[in-house]
Design brief:
The chain has ten helices and six strands. With 318 residues, the chain is of the alpha+beta class. It has two domains: 49 residues; 255 residues, 3-Layer(aba) Sandwich (Beta-lactamase).
């Protein structure tokens, strides 16, 4: 009987210990979740506070104004977002489209350049890569090419190599840090892109798994170039240098940006121009997106024209 009693006591003690251990694990996970939520809230507050002109008076509320910029688009299905960080305010044309995630196409070269520069995958003075000899549709790509030329000619084969060297793990980590759209790089090789099956010219950012909205584009750019950016000044300056539009340098407004274009079955379905403008009235982050529209000039060049026209008109009325 004594042995049986001892066995019962030991079993009860073991059960109590195991339950206590599970309880502790549950509390740890719960505490971890709370900690993550608090950390996110703090980061979010900081992002808002840096946009406040008078931080001692508190946090500026986000102001979103829907505007009618239909005349700039001339019948093209599209959207525009202008963000003023000093006022934490957005002007948005076609809000539904501004919140819809689409393939970033070559605007993603801003992000891949940022990551490569920050992690020394690209060193500007030593950035020339050797052309394979394959003849591409864009003659400017058929040569040895450096970082600046690759960015400005939107050379896909150059960036395919850069992204492969960055690698999946680092890319995923960096996109999560930036909170970049859906952060989906699952189609790394770009098999979902039915418009092109050339491995040198495809990837997750070209009509594939990665998506981002026009509003998210400007928010990501503010995280990169804003006052509280976590990226080095050297990286920011090198990136700004290749983003600067030379045709805008003689004006009161300096425009930095990148175009992007995506096709499906040979038809343009996504056209972008996104970046920021330094004006006499402060910095403005912008994104113009054009979607498929029958009988209209849907192109990244058109998106750039619309963006510069809107920015110029806004500057003139300040």
């Amino acid at each position: 009987m004594r042995n049986n009693s001892l066995k019962v006591i030991i079993m009860l003690l073991l059960s109590s210990f195991m339950l206590s251990g599970c309880s502790n694990k549950t509390e740890t996970k719960s505490e971890q979740k709370v900690s993550e939520e608090v950390r996110y809230d703090v980061q979010h507050e900081e992002t808002v506070e840096i946009e406040t002109e008078e931080p001692e008076e508190g946090v500026l509320e986000v102001v979103i104004t829907e505007v009618n910029w239909e005349s700039y688009f001339d019948g093209i299905n599209g959207s525009a977002v202008i963000y003023n960080p000093s006022e934490n305010s957005y002007q948005i044309y076609n809000q539904e489209m501004a919140l819809t995630q689409r393939s970033p196409c070559s605007t993603f070269k801003i992000i891949s350049s940022l990551i490569a520069l920050e992690n020394k995958v690209i060193i500007p003075d030593e950035s020339t890569r050797t052309w394979s000899g394959e003849i591409f549709w864009n003659e400017k790509w058929n040569r040895d090419i450096n970082f600046e030329d690759a960015f400005q000619t939107s050379c896909v084969w150059y960036y395919r190599e850069i992204i492969d060297e960055i690698g999946r793990d680092m890319m995923q980590q960096e996109l999560k840090k930036l909170d970049y759209g859906n952060c989906d790089i699952s189609d790394w090789e770009g098999y979902l892109n039915t418009n092109n099956n050339n491995r040198a010219l495809t990837g997750f950012w070209l009509e594939s798994s990665l998506k981002i909205s026009p509003k998210e584009q400007v928010e990501v750019l503010e995280r990169i170039f804003g006052e509280y950016s976590v990226y080095s000044k050297e990286t920011q300056n090198n990136l700004k240098q290749v983003m600067l539009l030379s045709e805008q340098q003689d004006r009161d407004m300096l425009v930095y940006g990148k175009t992007g274009l995506g096709k499906s079955q040979g038809v343009v379905v996504d056209a972008w121009f996104t970046g920021f403008a330094d004006t006499t009235n402060g910095r403005r982050y912008f994104c113009v997106y054009l979607g498929e529209t029958d009988g209209k000039d849907v192109s990244s060049t058109k998106a750039k024209e619309i963006a510069i026209e809107i920015l110029s008109d806004l500057e003139s009325v300040q």
